[in-house]
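Researcher: We're teaching a course module on how sequence relates to structure. For the next exercise, students receive a sequence and then see the predicted structure as tokens, so they can try to spot secondary structure elements on their own. Here is the exercise chain.
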Amino acid sequence: MTRVASIGRSLARGGAGEARRAGPLEAAERRAGFLFALPVILLTGSLLFLPILQTVYYSFTQWDGITATWVGLDNFRRLSSDPVFWRVLANNVLLLAAIPFAILIPLLVAFLLHQHVAGWRFFRSVYFLPTSISWVVIGMVAIRVFARRGILNDLLRMLGIPLTTDLLTTELGAMLAVSLTFIWSVFGTNTIIFITGMATLDRDVYEAARVDGAGPWAVFRYVTIPLLMRFIQFAFVLTVITGFTALFSLIFIMTTGGPGYGTTTLEFFVYQKAFAQGVFGYAAAIGTFLFAIVFLIGLVQRRLLRSQED
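Model: And here is the predicted structure for the students to work with:
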């Protein structure tokens, strides 16, 4: 088993070290490609970065949607002393607890599909279904699942479990329901990331591990995971960013941020402050804080990938 683990680690290091310096011709081709793509980059950048800069500017103002009065750091001081903001930030942290499951479950499924277990062809054609459905539809289906007269309670009754629950009526239950729905919604994306990664692996490595007496679990733990670490990191960062910035529609349909502030996330808090209360400057400060979090996550991901290449 130790030998299998050492093989996996050495192959992972070898794969990470295969990066080579580009030659003069390749560098010239890259420069030409960049010049051809420059108009699209400028257009996309103007549509993306100008709103970001505008949001950062308004975060230092008291803005009513028409006129903006400069207030400096007042919005951020208010942010640091707002107990509701810290409660909402804690909700995002709680949501992060679902991410290990959102990574591990697709990873296990991708491994089984890669091993061509019974029924793998059928499942490979349907696992991406959650990703092809809009967040609004997912939220509506989730309500039917977790409501008092929903599918979950029907299944419990069929199994003879005398338990009737309405998860969406309590803060902890609603967060659990949103977390489970979040895990299901990113299942397809993460599975395809891992299947794509496994398709690049040499099957001879698996055969060598089996010859050494490694079982399926040992192969998964000591061979597959080390070789897929770059893909796992990418899926992790993508899932974290999704949890911070892409759940507005889901929460709006399922709980509208309630009960109380039980499922209000930072992005939903921005909506509440801006469009429900009209406090646009304060909402811009929250949005700037959220952008800083996502930006830092991206920097960490870039640093991790570079460290593996080195």
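Model: If you want an answer key for the exercise: The two ends are 27 Å apart (CA to CA). The chain has one domain: 2-21+63-309.
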